[in-house]
Amino acid sequence: MESVNSPTNRQRAERGQASTLWGIGANVALVLGKGTAGVLGNSYALIADAIESATDIVSSGIVWLGLRTAAREPDDNHPYGHGKAEPLAAMLVAGALLAAAAYIAYESILRIQTPHQLPARFTLAVLAVIIAIKETLYRRVLRVGQEVESAAVKADAWHHRADAITSATAFVGIGIALLGGPGYESADDWAALVACAFIVYNAYHIFRPAFGEIMDEAPAGTWVADVRALAEAVPGVVATEKCFVRKMGLEFFVDLHVLVDGGISVREGHAIAGAVKAAIKRARPAVYNVLVHVEPNLA
Q1: Is 292 exposed, middle or buried (0-12, 13-18, 19+ CB in 10 A)?
Q2: 216 Cβ neighbours under 8 A, 6+ residues apart
Q3: Cβ atoms within 10 A of the Cβ of 70, count?
Q4: Do residues 276 and 284 touch, judged by C-beta distance below 8 A?
Q5: Domain check: are 197 and 243 in the same one?
Q6: By the 8 A CB rule, do 56 and 163 touch?
Q7: 239 lies in the same domain as 111
Q8: What are the residues facing 287 on neighbouring strands?
Q9: Which whole number is the average pLDDT over 265-276?
Q10: Cα separation of 98 and 112, whole Å?
């Protein structure tokens, strides 16, 4: 269970936004480096990699806007807050990945059918550096996404991983082309085509949990069990009955039925419900609201 010293939802949103901005800055530099090296080195796999990084910039911008919107306070039109903007951003990132994969696949097939020169050897060194940078970004952003429990930030991390995979397949393709020599020029393009399959897989990996969140799917892990345990530890609670937990952006909403002694007053039952709500929010700061329904224990 989380401690009372856990970061607030606003702090979690700010951490997610900061990691996203770091990724945008890195991708701007990588697009320029990849694109230049791909053109000068005659490597479409590297150019495709630059295209994938360009979609990273767009998707990271979407994630950043999604997190900013999700962190806004509830208003008259959105009494439950703006949290759905966060998984919506993740779903848009998945769409951007699919669009990039389709474009890269189309261009790769065209180049496979068109004779061209072997890629330059220096492109291998460029790709090695890119793979290291992208894998580092993936690990860093994923750690933040897991800590703040953000589908959009995790999606941004997986976009970095997709870029690293694209670079790795490009490295293999260029290596095969250079080792094989004349007649193996298209290995570079086949590598870009293979990378599309990995990109599509990552798009699904991003889309699935975000879609589940939009559909109010129960959160993974021990959330429900922890909430029940916290409620049942409150004096006056005999047991818990129904317990529903749903995630909305960076926040969680709990609907809970607790059983209390049927002979106590309404005032006492209300006090127990308040204590249950306080206990859950204190232990789980990510919980925005707890709706407690008090039922008499008739046993």
Answers
A1: buried
A2: 246
A3: 25
A4: no
A5: no
A6: yes
A7: no
A8: 252
A9: 94
A10: 21
Domain hosting 253: range is 223-297
The alpha helices in 220-265, defined as continuous H runs, are 223-232
DSSP 2: -
Q: Residues 277, 241: contact at Cβ < 8 Å? A: no
- Kindly state whether residues 149 and 52 are assigned to the same domain: yes
Which tokens belong to 97? 């990945």
Q: How far is CA 46 from CA 21, 127, 207, in A?
A: 24, 8, 26
pLDDT digits (tens, 9 = 90+) for 43-58: 776 777 787 778 778 8
pLDDT, tens digit, for every residue of 193-225?
Answer: 888 888 888 888 888 888 888 888 888 778 899
Spatial distance between the Cα atoms of 132 and 145, rounded to a whole number of angstroms: 20
Phi-psi region of 115 (alpha: psi -120 to 50; beta: other; left: phi over 0): beta
Looking up tokens 């345990």, which residue turns up?
229
Helical pair 187-214 and 151-180, crossing angle rounded to 10 deg: 170
Q: Give the pLDDT mean for 102-116.
A: 81
Residue 3 lies in a domain: no
Q: Which residue has the tokens 């941004």?
A: 156
How many angstroms separate the CA atoms of 111 and 188, rounded? 10
Kindly give the residue spans of alpha helices, DSSP state H, lying in the chain.
9-40, 44-70, 85-112, 122-148, 151-180, 187-214, 223-232, 266-283
Write down the pTM of the prediction: 0.70
Per residue in 161-180, pLDDT (tens digit) is: 877 887 888 788 888 888 88
Report yes or no on 4 lying in a domain: no
